[in-house]
Amino acid sequence: MCGPGLIDIYRYLGGGDWDETRPGDLWSAAIDGSEPVAANALAILVRCFGAACGDISLAHGAMGVAITGGLANRIKHLLRGPEFTERFLAKGRYRPRMTRIPVKLVTTEEPGLLGAAVAFCRKHSG
User: Fold this and answer.
1) Rounded Cα–Cα distance for residues 19 and 71 (Å)
2) Do 102 and 62 touch, CB atoms closer than 8 A?
3) What is the pLDDT of residues 11-55, one digit of tens each?
4) Can you give the residue ranges of every domain in the chain?
């Protein structure tokens, strides 16, 4: 999920050209709904992301999914919504297994640094 991906879907839907150097503007228009084609493009992207997350977690036998990143945090309401969830779960006979996989949004700004700090503290604490 990325800025250029949203631009590609937006263009495919007939939204016209968008300044690729400013994908954040399109994301803002999509999130706040001020640009209907952009909002539709974002809904499609969220469904595709849900399907991909489900496919990858099923293929790898995941026991949980952690979603990170600034864009994910900007659309957390959509990632917790039915469009993402239904596509994540839509794996045919594996749906019951998919319902048991927790999907969490990591809201920490620097999760890698936080993890490194925790590991350091555990190793070097008395």
Assistant:
1) 18
2) no
3) 999 998 777 788 889 999 999 999 999 999 999 999 999 999 999
4) 3-124
- 3-124: CATH topology is Hexokinase; domain 1 (3.40.367)
- Token pair in block for residue 5: 């991906």
**Cβ–Cβ under 8 Å, residues 14 and 37:** yes
Name residues whose C-beta falls within 8 Å of residue 110's C-beta, 6 or more positions apart in sequence. Answer: none
Q: What is the DSSP letter of 102?
A: -
d(CA 42, CA 21): 18
Among 78, 84, 81, smallest CA distance to 31 is for 78
DSSP character string of 62-93: -S-EEE-SHHHHHTHHHHTSHHHHHHHH--GG
